[in-house]
Amino acid sequence: MAQSVTFNQITLITDGCSNQGISPEEAARQALNQAITTNVIGITEQEILGEHGRIEVEKIALAGGGLYQIVPIEQVAKTVQMVTRQAMNRTIQQAVHTQLMEIMGKGDLNEIVPKKRLEVAKMVDQMAEYSHLNVLLLIDTSASMLNKMKKLEEAIFDFQLSLQSRTGKSNLSIVTFPGRNDVISIRVPWTDEIEQIRNVLYKMKPGGNTPTGTAIQASIAHFDRLKNKSLGVLDEYMV
Amino acid sequence: MNTWSKSVLFPIHPGTIIKGKWNRKEYVVKRIIGSGENGTVYLVALFERLYALKVSLVTFDLSYEINSINRLNKALGSILGFSVLDVDDVVIQGEVYTFYVMPYQVGITIEQHLYGKGQKDYTELFKQVIKLIDFIHNEAYVYGDLKPEHILIDTSTNQLSLIDFGGVTIKGEGIRQFTELFDRGSWKAGNRKANPHYDLFSIAMIFVQIGIGRNKLLKIFNQTRSLNEVYDIIPKIPSLQLLTPIFKKILQGKLLDSKEVINEIDNQIASNNKSKETTSYHWIDWLFNSSILLFLSLFIYFIYH
Ligand SMILES: Nc1ncnc2c1ncn2[C@@H]1O[C@H](COP(=O)(O)OP(=O)(O)OP(=O)(O)O)[C@@H](O)[C@H]1O
């Protein structure tokens, strides 16, 4: 059963507020309607992201059915993998809650005997480990990200390691915004050859505005390409 | 929602009574022992006996930990010397918290224990830790989140014990919880698939950290993350000298199995003792030879005079 479950996630990494295009909250809601969860990792600089940024990060994750974390750039690496796994667990737990509601009329895990709860937790964990995962990393490369590219590259590498180490199959695509011509720029198309991905942000010159909402919308569309793609080919990306 | 914020403060203080909602046991809180990413651990008493009780708001992570302990306990029994004694919920000020109760492990961390000690103690303890982990590997598990704070030693019995089983992983699956400084992946020395080498890497790094000091290792980690820099430093630390070749082989991924490591340690100790013996033998040899020479020369001296 576990193998047949598929998770779709957008993980947005950003350091500020959107200042262009549609509302990111609205876009995250649209993603959730398409069964894509949106997580947000907010990067603080010297402990500040600003109240406005913090609220936006929270709102996007809430609307997107995902999780958020606000961390300094040094912690982004560890955070990406934690958020991804916890978001999967949460999605499964939500499904379990719904099932529990149907079966027992109680949706709250706290209402069942701890012993049974442990069984549920074991099942949830195994599903997350063995399930199929499609993650789109959506990285803000607006002007303010200029001095964070090296750490981000490390974070991507770290995330690759964790995806490769899961038992279940993973597909990854890496997208930055704003793009040069388009709102997003596809750095790595969908691939399951995760170990092959290298130097994604190499020579990237951050710049431009932060059209977060529009970028999320474009990411939803990018998920469509997964459906009609035989994966494993990175040719179009390898240079 | 942000489900895992660090250092959550619970309204639990010395004297608080934690009464299980399901099992109805009443634990009296003595003091806080420690707190980490997944919860807070308290020293508690039940019928005059002391236990450790871990509370968390994130039921799920706690459940993973409890399941790990139960599975290991089933497989290892008394070797592990650790089990979950009670799992329950407590309602405090309207909020539901999950907790579990485990034996209170007496002891200090191996880092505190090794402070000021020499090569012999380092080597012996390293071997003991590997042996302990080997039991877990034998049962097709990997411990995962090894760090100095998770390995305790009871100095009156020299008994080692592990605490915090939140990182325990079935061989072949992905490690769920780790600490970057001791994580093979973060050092770019491999992936995070659970295999015995994952733990060996952490243990080697733990001993390197204790030997060279946390700040020095952190500096390398934060600046260059280069294992070569680690290899340069360790031979210069007297307490690590005997183990240096083994550390290197582990960190380079050339030693992959705990039993092989134990063999290597034994060989290293044996050859070290031998070289000591041979130097002392040489010395006796030399004394013996020189006494013969002295004797001969005296003899000759007497004959010719
Ligand atoms: N059974 C025990 N006996 C004695 N002390 C314990 C026990 N369990 C935990 N502790 C103490 O409490 C501290 C925190 O516990 P633990 O490591 O389980 O928490 P955690 O939330 O998983 O932390 P971490 O962030 O280290 O993973 C430990 O470092 C240790 O000092």
In short:
With 239 residues, chain A is α/β, with parallel strands linked by helices. Chain A has 6 helices and 6 strands, in the order βαβαβααβαββα.
SSE topology sketch:
The complex is a heterodimer of chains A (239) and B (305).
Chain A: E1 6-14, H1 24-33, E2 37-44, H2 51-63, E3 65-72, H3 76-104, H4 114-130, E4 132-140, H5 149-165, E5 170-177, E6 185-191, H6 212-227
Parallel strand pairs in A: 1-2, 1-4, 2-3, 4-5
Antiparallel strand pairs in A: 5-6
Chain B: E1 17-19, E2 26-36, E3 39-46, E4 49-56, H1 59-76, E5 86-92, E6 95-103, E7 108-109, H2 110-114, H3 119-138, E8 141-142, E9 151-154, E10 159-162, E11 169-170, H4 196-212, H5 214-223, H6 227-233, H7 244-251, H8 258-304
Antiparallel strand pairs in B: 1-2, 2-3, 3-4, 4-6, 5-6, 7-9, 8-11, 9-10
Helix pairs in contact in B: 3-4, 3-8, 4-5, 4-7
Bound molecules: adenosine-5'-triphosphate (ATP).
Secondary structure: helix percent of chain B: 40-55%
Low-confidence stretches of chain B: 1-7
Shape of chain A: globular
CA distance, first residue to last residue of chain B: 104 Å
What is the helix/strand order of chain A? EHEHEHHEHEEH
- Low-pLDDT regions of chain A: 232-239
How many E strands of chain B?
11
Q: Which CATH-level-2 architecture of chain A?
A: 3-Layer(aba) Sandwich
What portion of the residues of chain B fall into strands of 2 or more residues?
15-25%
- Label the overall shape of chain B: elongated
> Helical segment tally of chain A?
6
Average predicted confidence as pLDDT of chain A: 86
- Largest interface, C-beta within 8 A: A-B, 36 and 30 residues
What spatial order of strands do you see in the largest sheet of chain B?
Answer: 1-2-3-4-6-5
Oligomer description = heterodimer
Q: Strand content of the residues of chain A, in percent? A: 15-25%
Give the helix/strand class of chain B: alpha+beta
Radius of gyration of chain A: 18 Å
- The CATH H-level superfamily of chain A is von Willebrand factor, type A domain
